[in-house]
Design goal:
Layout lengths: L7 H20 L13 H37 L14 H6 L7 H10 L2
């Protein structure tokens, strides 16, 4: 699929909207634990769990943000829509759903299988 087959402005708008959402997620601060009191082990454990969850969500948002930024670069350099692994066009339906997708579904499936 050629770059001309895409509505650049629509794709850029979707990517920038996703980027703004992710930046807000990444910028949320993880609260430091307050002073612990004796007898509050359950509360402390809950707080630690919530911190770990928040850190994991922030890490995931940061990784997703990197994918969005890379898609914006591909949009600007004209390589958007081509699979980074095999060079074939990425299906338009895939790009509609995931405009930051860097691989066609076949290559993404192989990559996911290799990382298990």
């Amino acid at each position: 699929m050629r770059m001309a087959d895409f509505d650049r402005d629509l794709i850029r708008a979707a990517l920038l909207e996703e980027r703004a959402r992710l930046l807000a997620d990444v910028e949320e601060t993880v609260q430091a634990p307050g002073q612990m009191t004796y007898g509050s082990q359950a509360a402390a454990a809950s707080h630690v769990f919530e911190q770990q969850r928040d850190l994991a969500l922030r890490d995931r948002a940061t990784q997703h943000l990197e994918l969005v930024d890379a898609a914006l670069v591909r949009l600007d350099d004209g390589s958007f829509g081509a699979c980074l692994r095999c060079g074939r066009p990425i299906a338009p339906a895939r790009l509609d759903a995931l405009p930051w997708a860097a691989h066609c579904i076949e290559c993404q499936t192989a990559i996911d299988r290799d990382h298990r």
